[in-house]
Design the sequence.
């Protein structure tokens, strides 16, 4: 199609219709429900204001999932599963995501939450109860087959709203308990009933033999935006501090004197052993000043650094640094290997 500037554009903002069509072609009976389908895929939107690179792009990667249930009660159960799973997923990425009531916008429907992380550079202004900062979704392991309502109620019981839903006159939270901040939306979930299934004829036969339109929800995580959001939430003056769970490499291996036989041997051996142990490692064997290499490693922000220099190599030691704390330790290479393996 042509976009808002009359330029050629490949359009694919979201996939409710396509997935409903796939469902319709393959599922006929309530016995196959609930059904959850997902993919991780590029989306193409005619954004009014694309900005900040991955944060709001005209093309971006989304993890989008779709739920199909026989009735409203089933659909709410599916919705709650995603609600809880998303909170835990974001927490494992080192993010404190706060679920907020949201407008469902063009996706439609009457129940919707967006997950916002707090960051000064966020696009939207958000308001929430200070107690959110105390919650840890990883504290207890939920049983996804159980009734998740009590768990979800705990989270939705506290006030949280983005700008468009917040009304200072009606806000139930006293001013000294209210957190005003900026937020980055990293996920958004929707229940929209039969909005797509009804007109598209996505029906299933129920236990009573009657055919009915399925109740649907959709659930999105902004995968490419997350890279930026995680960095906003986890950095210092020297650069990125990747949480272990999402670091592009676990270890940065720095060879301080490429070309020096002993240093190359120790660093090369460590590199091979790290890879053998299944530990992702980025090897810096560039011909650069030591200071530049240290600065680059801090900037890239991998969780662990192992530095091999000529003096240490001769004495049989390397230096291990934890990026997050800055803590450094000299130790033999094999101990370094065990340390970064965790
Ligand atoms: C839910 C899954 C949907 O599209 N349909 C399928 C529903 N929701 S959403 O809120 O519109 O998008 C889901 C998440 O994708 C991220 N996102 C973006 N990331 C980068 N650039 C963009 N232009 C962009 N638009 C949306 C957000 O994280 C959003 O929560």
Sequence:
């Amino acid at each position: 199609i042509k976009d808002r500037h009359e330029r050629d554009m490949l359009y694919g903002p979201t996939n409710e219709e396509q997935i409903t069509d796939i469902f319709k072609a393959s599922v006929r009976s309530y016995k196959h429900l609930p059904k959850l389908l997902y993919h991780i895929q590029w989306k193409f939107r005619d954004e009014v204001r694309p900005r900040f690179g991955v944060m709001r792009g005209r093309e971006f990667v989304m993890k989008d999932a779709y739920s199909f249930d026989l009735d409203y009660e089933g659909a709410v159960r599916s919705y709650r599963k995603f609600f809880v799973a998303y909170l835990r997923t974001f927490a494992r990425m080192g993010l404190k995501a706060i679920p907020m009531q949201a407008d469902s916008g063009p996706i439609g429907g009457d129940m919707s939450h967006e997950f916002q992380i707090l960051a000064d550079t966020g696009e939207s202004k958000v308001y929430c109860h200070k107690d959110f900062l105390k919650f840890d979704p990883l504290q207890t392991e939920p049983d996804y087959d159980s009734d998740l309502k009590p768990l979800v109620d705990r989270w939705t019981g506290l006030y949280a709203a983005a700008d468009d839903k917040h009304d200072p006159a009606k806000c139930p939270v006293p001013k000294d308990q209210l957190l005003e901040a900026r937020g980055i939306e990293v996920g958004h979930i929707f229940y929209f009933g039969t909005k797509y299934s009804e007109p598209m004829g996505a029906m299933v036969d129920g236990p009573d033999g009657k055919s009915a339109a399925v109740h649907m929800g959709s659930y999105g995580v902004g995968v490419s935006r997350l890279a930026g959001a995680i960095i906003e939430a986890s950095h210092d003056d020297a650069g990125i501090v990747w949480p272990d769970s999402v670091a592009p490499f676990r270890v940065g291996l720095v060879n301080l004197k490429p070309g020096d036989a002993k240093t190359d041997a120790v660093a090369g051996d460590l590199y091979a052993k790290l890879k053998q142990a299944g530990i992702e490692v980025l090897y810096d064997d560039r011909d650069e000043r030591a200071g530049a290499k240290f600065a680059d490693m801090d900037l890239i922000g991998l969780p662990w650094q192992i530095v091999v220099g000529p003096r240490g190599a001769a004495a049989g030691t390397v230096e291990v640094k934890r990026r997050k704390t800055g803590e450094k330790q000299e130790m033999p290479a094999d101990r370094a290997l065990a340390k970064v393996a965790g």
